[in-house]
Amino acid sequence: MNWPAYRERYLPAMTLRQIEALPAKQDAYVLLSVGAIEQHGPHLPVGVDALLGQIFLDHLMPLLPQDLPVYVAPPIQVAKSNEHTGFPGSLILSRESLRRQVLAVALQLELWGFQRIGILNTHGGNASVLKSLVRELRLEHAMLADLLPLGFEPDVASPREAAFGIHAGEFEASVLYAAMPDLTDPTVANCEWIGSLENKSRLQAEFAPATYAWKTLDISKSGTMGDAKAGSAEKGRRWIEGIARGLAGIIRSKFD
Description:
The protein is an alpha/beta fold. The protein has helices at 16-21, 48-60, 95-112, 127-141, 159-164, 170-179, 216-219, 233-253, and strands at 29-34, 70-72, 116-121, 144-148, 191-192, 226-227.
């Protein structure tokens, strides 16, 4: 078994003595992927967000210099997905449970000797929890923590998809079609809009300054929020490569 592709930098694959012998751990950078398990419409597996982190890591780690002390922690795959209540296939942590789990991992890494951590979040529902947590890690635990941006804007098919394709749409479908086609079914991909550019009375862009309380069933009967029909493996390959290059550049800059 040769998974993952970055096995020599994957902390769970190391022995105790190998971890103890890592040089200058206080200057190293540890990546922690945080995803989610939740419904992703009729065409994608429920593990999309958890899988995205692993897909991006598989492609970005080979882009880093071999002598750069970057390591990968075991991923957190179940997180805050309570907005998907009512659909089968979702595993849900409360916001406090997610905060405590990520905090526990970070503090255990500190006990191992690491002081810098980069969190790669692939689920929008986690964002508010993680934003406050990285500040907490710095202020209360003297750890240098970053919430890594994906560093790439995909050229989606339409302005409407760019504004309202927030879940199981063109982007996520394309990435999974490219990386894990056996887990997908493009023949049942659908399109369900949650708003229009002309009439924004429904849910607006995910990080709009003002919106309203909602759960997915309020705005999407299928679970899809966007145009999955526009997805393709070709787009997915291009976007994976772009995200990997962007993340690799951000991580390299941490050592400048």
